[in-house]
Amino acid sequence: MNEKKYLKWYQKVAYGSGDMASNCGYALISSFVMLYLTNAVGLNSAVIGTLMMASKLLDGVSDIFFGGLMDKTRSIG
User: Fold this and answer.
1) Residue whose C-alpha is closest to residue 37's, from 25, 49, 53
2) C-alpha dihedral over 20, 37, 40, 46, to 10 degrees?
3) Most buried in the list 20, 34, 45, 49, measured by CB within 10 Å?
4) Which residues neighbour 7 within 8 Å (Cβ) at sequence distance 6 or greater?
5) Is 17 helix (H, G, I), strand (E, B) or coil?
6) Which of 60, 26, 59, 33 is nearest to 47 (CA)?
7) Is residue 43 helix, strand or coil?
8) First and final C-alpha spacing in the chain
């Protein structure tokens, strides 16, 4: 019987800190885009928030689709 191998605590912390850094970058860019579109372009913040929400939902759906497609793909190598 194969025994399950779990990650050590410091491996979990390292993975989480890398993901946190990625999310901080995304939040910085999103904040800049929101300020630019509201102040410079003059769009309503509700419209911008709805567009950002729609893009994240579309990203979630496409991730599932393309992940399944990659799982079924056979490559030479």
Assistant:
1) 49
2) -120
3) 34
4) 15
5) helix
6) 33
7) coil
8) 29
Hey, what are 39's tokens? 């102040």
45 Cβ contact partners less than 8 Å away, ≥ 6 residues apart: 34, 38
Token pair 């939040």: residue: 27
- pTM higher than the cut 0.90: no
In whole angstroms, give the CA distance from residue 8 to residue 20. 19
* Side chain identity at residue 6, one-letter code: Y
Taking only the tens place, the pLDDT of each residue in 12-49 is 899 889 889 888 998 999 999 999 999 999 999 999 99
* Single-letter code of the amino acid located at 67: G
Q: How many residues can be counted in the chain?
A: 77
| CA angle at 33 for the pair 64 and 46, rounded to the nearest 5° | 80
